[in-house]
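Minutes, project check-in
Item: structure for the 913-residue chain
Input as provided by the requester:
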Amino acid sequence: MIKRKYFLIVVLVGLVCSFFFFNNGVLDLSYTANATDFSSAPIQGEHIVFDESHLPYWDNNITLQYNNFTTDMVAQGYTVEAMSTWDPATIMGADIFVTVTPSLAYSATELGLLHDFVAHGGGLFIIGDRFDVGADIASYFDVTLSNDPLVDENNFIAPYDYWVVWNRSANFGDHPITAGVNRVETYYGDGLVLYPIHGVPILITDADDHSRWDMGGGVASGIAGIVAFEYELGLGRIVVSGDGDSWTRADTDSDGTFNYFDGDNEILARNIIDWLAHPNIPTKTVVFDESHTPFNSIDETPTPINVLFDETHAAWNGIDDDDDNIYGYEDDFSGFGDFAQILEGADYNVDKMTVWSSATINANDVLVMVRPSTDYTANELNIIEGYVIQGGSVLIIGESTSFLTNAVYQLARTFGCDFYDGVINDSDNYNTYDYWPVFSDANLANHPILNGIDEVTFLHATAFNETPANAIPLIRTDNDATAGWYTTPPGSPSAQNLPVAVAFTYGRGRVVVTADMSHWYNDTSNGLLALSHNGLFGINVVRWLGEAGFAIGSFYDTAQILRGAGYGIKMMRQFNPDFMATADALVIGGSFTQYSASNRTSIQEYVEVMGRSLFLIGDAFMYLGFTSEIAEDFGIRFDYGSFLIDSDDYFGDGFFITTDVIYGTPNFATHPIMAGLNQIIIAGATGINNQPGSATTLVQTDGDATSTWINLTAAPDYPVMSALTPSRGRLVTIGASWQFTRRILTSGLHGDNKTMIIDYYDNRALLLNTMDWLTSNRAPLVTLVQPDGGENINGTYTIQWTHDDFDGQPLTTDLFYSFDNGSTWHPIVTGLDNTSYTWNTVGLPNSDQYRIRVVVSDGDLSSEAISTSSFTVFNFIFLPPDFPWLLIIAAVVIIIVVIIVLVLVLRRRGSSK
C-alpha cells in the first residue's frame, strides 16, 4: 500500500511538471496558421486536353489515328484527356490544348475561351490540313492557312511530290522545337501564308522554284509549314501546323512505318509539346479590357479613319481651292477646309476625290458628300449603296430649300431619307436670328455621337419628313410652339419635334444625314463651326461612322513598351472577373458600350477587395462616357466634352494647336509616378472636376490665365491626372487617351523622325512609372489586437494580431517585448506564419512599462505594430529572464524521488525490527 501511495505521488508530481512545461511556454503548441492568401497562380501542371468535341476529320482522335501521338506523350510524362463535349472547366484546367483538323467550326464564345486559356499561360497546338480544315481557329490567332497544299519537286516521297520531305540543312527555322530533328515528312499539307510578325517558321519550303502550290501551280518558296510564337495578347504559346497526317498512325507512304515515326516526326511532336508546356510567365501581368467595344486595341496596328470628300459632283463646299492656308485647305467663306483640318487633328486621314472612282471610295472608311450640285448616275448610287452595305459609312450633308439640289435628294432617298422644302426657326432658342436655332437638352438624343455635346447651332436648316425605321434622330426641333418655319413647306406641316440630323446602320455600314451644312462652315464670316459644340459634333459624327468596321486607335505600342519592360500582357476579349484576377493591373482605355452593373461591381471588387490596380484612361471625346461611369464608382468625375488648352505651353499639332499641352515640374506632384520626370505632353485632355480628398493630383494645369478650356473659360490648377488608393487597391486616372495610343503627329511639323506622342519628352517614362506604381510590391498591413495597453498580465498570455498583404504574398511574423516603454526590445519568437502566440511571462521582470512589437514581412517589405500604451506584467515570484527553469525543475523532481526512496528504505528497516 505504501509503494502505491508513493507511486501516485510521483505521478502527480510528473503531471504538475508537465502542465507547467506546456502551460508556461517551455513547449508552446498554442498557435495555428490562418494568414489570408490572395494569390492567384497561372495554370500549372502538364496535362494535355485533346479536343474531340469539334469532330476531327479522318478519325483523328486519340483512340484511332492519334493513338501513337497520345501514347508517346504519356510515355514522356504527360497526362492526356479526350474532351468529347466542350467543357470550359476542362480546358482551363489543362496545360496544353490540342485541336486536330476540326470539322465543326468554333463559335465566337469558344474562341474567346481559348484566347483566355492561352492568355493565362496555356499552350495551344492547332493542327490544320488541306481544304480549310482548322482554318477558322488558326485565323482567330492571326494565322492563315493556304487552302492549297504544298509541293516540293525535288524533295518528296515517291510517287507524289506533295509528300514533302523537310531537311535540317534547308528547311528548318532556328527554334528550340527543331532541336534533335533532322528530317520531317508531311503528307499533302497546307502552307501558312500569314502569321504574326514575331512568329518563327519551324518548317520552311525551299528557297527555289521547285517549291510550289499543288492546285495553284505557282511558286511557293519560303512558305511555312509549321509556325510557333509567343502569344502577344497573353502569356502562353501557340504552334500551328498545316498538316495533320504527320503525327497519325496511318502509313501513308506504305513504307511499313507509321507516319508518326517517319523521319523525326515523333521528336518534333515531343519538342512542340515540351515548348508549349513551359511558357515564360512574367512576375507582373497587365490585362487590357477590350470586352466593351474599345476605342483602343492592343492586338493590331491600327489605321486612322480615312475620310474622303466627294468633289466630283460640283460640291458647293469643297475642302481645297486656290486660296490655301498652311494646311492645304481653303480658309474662305465657302469651304469646309477648317472642318477637314479639325478631322486631321483628330487623327483622321482626309482627302478629296475629284475624279469618280469606286476603288478610291472603297479604299476609305467614310465618304462625305457636301450638297453636291450635279446628279449621280444610277450606277454611282449603286456603288455608294454597295459600299455602305459592305461596311463603309457615308455622311450626307444637306441644306435648306434654296440650296437643296436633286443630287442631295438622290443621296438621301437612296438610304430612306427625305427633306421638307422649308427652313426651320426657333422663337426663343437662337443665335442672332431665329433661323439660327440653338439645340440643347431635350433636343439632343442619347447617342454616342452626342456624348460631351451640350449644344449645337444650325443656320438655314430644313428638317426631315421621312427617315428609316431604325434611324435615331440625333437632333430634333423643340416640341412646343417655339419651333416654327421661317420658310413654310407646302401643306404647312407642324415644325415641332422634327429631326434635323439622323444616324442609322445600313447593312454592315453606317449613315448620318444632316439637314444643314452651315454648322460645319469654316470659322470665318458666317461660319458656325466655332459656335456651340459644332466642331466636336463633326468629330463625333465621323468617329461613329468610322467605327463601322475599322480600327481607329490603338494601345498596341503601349502594350509593346510594357512587354519590353518585362510585363506580361493579356487582352480580355470577353469580360471575365476570373480572368482579371490573374493579372496585377487592369487597363480600361475607353469604350463604346456600357458596362453592366455586375461588370462594374467586379471591377470595384478587383481593386478594393482583391487589392489589385486599375489604370482608367478617359478623354474629352465621346468614348469617355462609359469609362466615366467606372470612374464615378471610385468617387472620380471627369469633366468630359471639352478640351483643356494652354496658350503658351503647347506642342502644336494642327488641331486647335494648343490642345497638346506641355506640362513641367511646376505642374507635377511629389509622387513616385512623377519621379524623374521633367516634361510631358498631355494631348487632347479633359480634366477631373471631382475626386476623393485622399486622391493625389499628379498633374494639374498652370495656375495662371494661360490655362483655359477650348472655349477660353478659365481652368487654372485643374487636375488632369490623379492617383488614389481605394481600400486595398490602387487607381490612376487620366483624362487623355492619346498619350498611350498610336496617334500620329503631323508629318514633318517638328523636323524629327518621331511620330507618336508617347515618343516625346518623358511620356514613355510616365507610362512606365505609372505601371510600376500600380504593380509594385506593397508593405503588408498589421494591427496588434492584444495586448494594446492597460492590461495586467501574469503567467501565460495570448498575443493576437491581424495582418494582410495586398499582393498576395506569404507573410511571416516576429514578436518582441519591451519592459522599458520601448527603449529596448527583446525577441520573443521569429518566423511565425499565424496571427496568435501564447507568451510565457514567468521569469520576466515585473514592470508596468511593457509593450509588444509585431513585425510582419512579405519577404521584401515589412510593417510593424506596437502596443498603443504600456501594460503591466506582474508574477508573484520575480526571477530573472534567464533563470534556469528546466534545471531547477529537474533538481526538484530528483530531490522528491530521493526523499521517497529514503522514506521507503527507512520504513522497510523499521518494519523488519
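Outcome recorded: The radius of gyration is 38 Å.
No further action items on this chain.
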